DNA sequence: GATGAATGAGCCTTCATTCAT
DNA sequence: CATGAATGAAGGCTCATTCAT
């Protein structure tokens, strides 16, 4: 169907309900692409599937996006960027303390994986299907996000707050744990977001061996 | 490039070493498929690519495997089964102690992800491209593997050796951390397998909050 | 871009000079179409290309011309007609003498191929892409032009001025020679129009074997 | 080559009559392409049209030719090369005399345009649709053919046998006249090949102003 | 055991065109 | 006068698969 599954896009919001209200083309397509790419993967998805789910013709899709690859690139970049900005926002509020900063990162990450499960899956799996130029651009953003984690853990160790011997492996573990959430979390289940954040914060603190905080 | 990149498969074993493994049709194809599926994904790989890398004709491929889907299914099942058997082997040697059993699981998992990086990537990513019947069969095996972890952690808690409040999240974290190794580990790097096992064992024990062992 | 490359079209004539010919929609489109049809051929040209080079939107194009085919038909007819009228004009001034009349035809033809190279190419190549009705209409005009040549040569032979045994082949040769000019003539080269006319008049007179004139 | 439009190829002769005898793929396609490209032009021809006329499936076409462009390039190259070789063959037999050599060139050219009308049309019209690399390769061959004419006329003038003042224009006229034959000649008409050669030889000699031979 | 030829379905993309505004 | 959004048909090409040899 054409209804946005995830975050509402400012551009649409319009008449809604039913077929895509003439003019909501771009968003309808983006949403449809997001869903189907997540379900079947980039190569497993045909551009006809996307157009159909968006309730538009094949050609309308090309009116808004120049190619299947651009559609993917836009989706991945938008998603990664949103994640990065969410982290920065939480960090800005977290102050200077490594433990608080690590908590902020876990909160941002878990929240993102839960709220944007669909993007999260795509980002994890379809990254390799980007053409080199798009991939490079995305890499820089991803590296910046990695650095956020790295710096916090390094700082915690320096200040004697974290005690893990291998910070890189600790970082990888925490990130992998948060990322995995997108694969299994059921929003209809018993665990709500805040509870989940609490649980993964605990785990993260154990992984970096935080003591006395 | 028909030469096996990874572990030699028992099925082949032939004259090997050098040119296109004389008469080793089946294995050549399996190996080629494994590599290319890992590189480009199931839908991104064409059966012609596989035949070409195996140094065989398209028709030869069909002589050995009945379809592209079967090729994938065989690969995934074989890989998952090998992993499961490796776990059982290590567990048999580990005795009854939860800590020793968890160590055994981490050892099996890390070793598998390192030695069979290619299969590991495929298992992680291409699972969804299996047709339902194959998927179901594989699911049972995967669930059995999950149960190995679950039972060990549950036992550890019951015996007061592990203290984590949310065993499922602990299990997911440890498994995700081990799985991720396949994505980043560089066998030419400085960290050898035993060192890596040691590090991830430590992390796993912190995640389940093992005390006094 | 959108500036007319060749002769100014009476239809436009507007403010012109510089940017997109203000309000000169129709002419801008005709000119753009002429250029691109000549460069890439009818089927090799998209209506979007034309609109883009004219600096107009796709819909504007349809405001002025009812279809791609009509655009071609208009171009071809206009061009052929201009050629025919140029011939008649020169002939009217040439009087009755077959030699003078042949000279007039060569002059008209060479001048047209030089001054309107672009149209000339289109007329030569895109004729076959006209739909039957347009083609028929154009044929009549082309036949009339052919008859101008035929009659002059026949008259010259009758009067004993020309001596070629096969007037049709002579006519075809002269016409082919003039037509070819559009393909190779370089207006920036050393040979100017008058010189070229002189040369081809000589050739034509040799081809029809004119003696004592 | 199986479909009989033009010269018979020794390679075929097989089962004939009816659909293309399994195995005659390559030639059937080449022949079909030649015909349709000549009728509708490169861009006006769809690869499906070609396959259909060849009595094969679309995919079979791609089994034999890697792309539509390659099909065109092969056709153009083959045709131009055949023409060039025919010229060289006739010239070898013509000896040293400029008049005899010019006669040989006219003979080769007229014969080619008559016997291979279809190729001739394609060569004349579709040259511009070749991609640059193919175009360049073909250009060299075409230039070599041009040089054959140029050298003969220059030699004739030097020896005082030809007297035209502008050899390049003479050459262009003769070549254009011969080329044009492909457009109008009707093999079912009254003029046979030898007669046509005689007529165009006469014209050519008049154009270069050959005297006393 | 292995091959080359052939196929039908489907892929991404572009086309000429229309229509509400 | 002019536009942006939308469309159905068609374009070139690739796919997994089959079959006679």
UniProtKB/TrEMBL annotation, chains A, B, C, D:
DNA-binding region: 46-65
Bilayer-crossing regions: none
Domain of life: Bacteria
Record PANTHER family: HTH-TYPE TRANSCRIPTIONAL REGULATOR RUTR, TRANSCRIPTIONAL REPRESSOR MCE3R
Bias kind Low complexity: ranges: 1-14
Protein name (record): TetR/AcrR family transcriptional regulator
Chain residue ranges for the region called Disordered: 1-25
Domain named HTH tetR-type: residues: 23-83
Key word DNA-binding present: yes
Source species taxonomy: Bacteria, Bacillati, Actinomycetota, Actinomycetes, Pseudonocardiales
Keywords: DNA-binding
């Amino acid at each position: 169907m054409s209804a946005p599954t995830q975050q509402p896009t400012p551009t649409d919001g319009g008449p809604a309900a039913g077929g895509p209200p003439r003019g909501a083309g771009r968003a309808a397509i983006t949403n449809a692409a997001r869903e189907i790419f997540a379900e079947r993967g980039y190569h497993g998805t045909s551009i006809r599937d996307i157009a159909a789910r968006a309730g538009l013709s094949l050609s309308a899709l090309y009116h808004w996006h120049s190619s299947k690859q651009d559609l993917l690139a836009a989706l991945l970049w938008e998603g990664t960027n949103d994640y990065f900005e969410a982290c920065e926002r939480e960090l800005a509020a977290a102050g200077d303390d490594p433990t608080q900063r690590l908590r902020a990162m876990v909160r941002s990450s878990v929240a993102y994986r839960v709220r944007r499960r669909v993007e999260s899956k795509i980002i994890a799996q379809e990254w390799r299907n980007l053409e080199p130029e798009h991939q490079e651009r995305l890499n820089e953003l991803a590296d910046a996000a990695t650095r956020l984690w790295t710096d916090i853990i390094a700082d915690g160790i320096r200040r004697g707050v974290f005690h893990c011997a291998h910070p890189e492996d600790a970082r990888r573990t925490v990130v992998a744990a948060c990322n995995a959430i997108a694969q299994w979390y059921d929003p209809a289940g018993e665990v709500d977001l805040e509870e989940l954040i609490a649980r993964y914060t605990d785990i993260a603190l154990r992984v970096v061996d935080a003591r006395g905080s």
